[in-house]
Design goal:
352 residues, alpha+beta, Herpes Virus-1, 3 domains, five-stranded mixed barrel, five-stranded antiparallel beta sheet, 5 helices, 30% strand, elongated, binds zinc ion, zinc, metal-binding
Length: 352
């Protein structure tokens, strides 16, 4: 706080930043909460013989946002795992991640870091089918890679460590990056896996399709069931609400502090002004008592006895207004006659 009572630049920056961050966090929370609400409101449809008739009766042969659970089955071809025998699936993702240690100049520690250096995802068309084999209806999953929460199963994982020679170890210490090796993983969505899909369900050419929904709704494919998927989204929304709340609290505390400082400063100034007024009134009363004229008071005269020279500096306020006998005669606790501040120390003033 500057002495003129205006908030300092740092305080204004803090207030503006915390307000802006709160607004951003809150908008993220609102988006998450909207996702949770639309997930709750999504129509739960089971894969059974009635599915086609439900869709053909629906407007546009479409349910804009539906939840279905089913078993993964390939349409024609399947993908085989490149590492594990007898493992077949419909989505296969190969990832190469480089693991290295990076020197942090601030904390002076080596931190592990992993970066994806290569990723390839293969897919083949697949359906979600009923657990009951007698049900012939199935749902074709369209553009599955656009779905969120598609946590594939890791079918293979290996680590290829980097060979270290003395010369490149030294160069790593100089550069601040030490490679550890390459981690290779294969993840798959396997046949027979239970999947929950949330998206737009349409009937097109007698084929039921699950596809990315419109109107900004989120497309989900998950190996979790509907309740777990919803629970995960809810806890995510709660987390963002908590973050927004904490940041909002910081903004409120900053604002409160700025207002409180301004209010106390104003109150102090008012008190100083009224003390000065009282002091002047007291001085006029003394002059009337002594039957003196204002012009008759010598310059630098003690403001209490109006005759002796001022010889005391009051600290911390710094006022020079009385002679020593008048200072000694002040009632306890001793206060400056001009501003009413408590007198901490007195320094004698020598006029040469
Ligand atoms: Zn005096
Ligand atoms: Zn004073």
């Amino acid at each position: 706080m500057e002495s003129n009572g205006r908030p300092s630049t740092a305080q204004i920056i803090l207030l503006a930043t915390s307000s802006a961050v709160t607004a951003v966090l809150y908008s993220v929370y609102q988006k998450k909460a909207a996702t949770v609400n639309s997930l709750k409101e999504a129509k739960k449809i089971s894969i059974d013989q009635d599915l086609r008739s439900i869709l053909s009766k629906a407007p546009g042969k479409c349910v804009p946002y539906a939840v279905i659970e089913g078993v993964v089955r390939s349409v024609k071809e399947t993908l085989n795992s490149q590492f594990v025998d007898n493992t077949k699936g419909v989505i296969e993702r190969l990832t190469l991640r480089e693991k290295k240690m990076v020197w942090n100049r601030t904390t002076h520690l080596w931190n592990d870091r992993e970066t994806i250096i290569h990723q390839r995802t293969n897919t083949v068309p697949f359906d979600l089918c009923s657990h009951d084999d007698s049900v012939t209806v199935s749902v074709r999953v369209v553009r599955p890679l656009e779905a969120s929460e598609l946590n594939l199963e890791t079918t293979y994982e290996t680590f290829h460590p980097t060979m270290q020679s003395l010369s490149n170890m030294i160069s790593h210490f100089i550069s601040g990056e030490r490679p550890k090796g390459i981690r290779e993983t294969e993840e798959m969505l396997r046949l027979g896996e239970c999947v929950t899909g949330v998206g737009e369900l349409v009937l097109e050419n007698n084929l039921v399709k699950l596809q990315p929904p419109k109107q900004g709704l989120r497309y989900f494919l998950s190996r979790q069931d509907y309740a777990s998927l919803l629970g995960k989204q809810e806890s995510g929304a709660r987390f963002w609400r908590l973050l927004a709340g904490l940041c909002g609290l910081a903004a409120c505390v900053t604002l409160y502090y700025i207002l409180w400082r301004q209010w106390t400063l104003r109150r102090k100034r008012r008190q100083e002004r009224s003390a000065l007024e009282e002091f002047k009134e007291e001085q006029r009363r003394r002059m009337r008592e002594l039957e003196m004229d204002e012009s008759a008071v010598p310059a630098g005269a003690c403001s209490v006895c109006l005759s002796a020279q001022r010889t005391c500096v009051f600290l911390e306020c710094g006022h020079v207004c009385t002679c020593e006998p008048c200072y000694l005669a002040l009632p306890l606790p001793k206060k400056c006659p001009i501003c009413r501040a408590l007198i901490d120390r007195v320094v004698p003033l020598y006029n040469s």
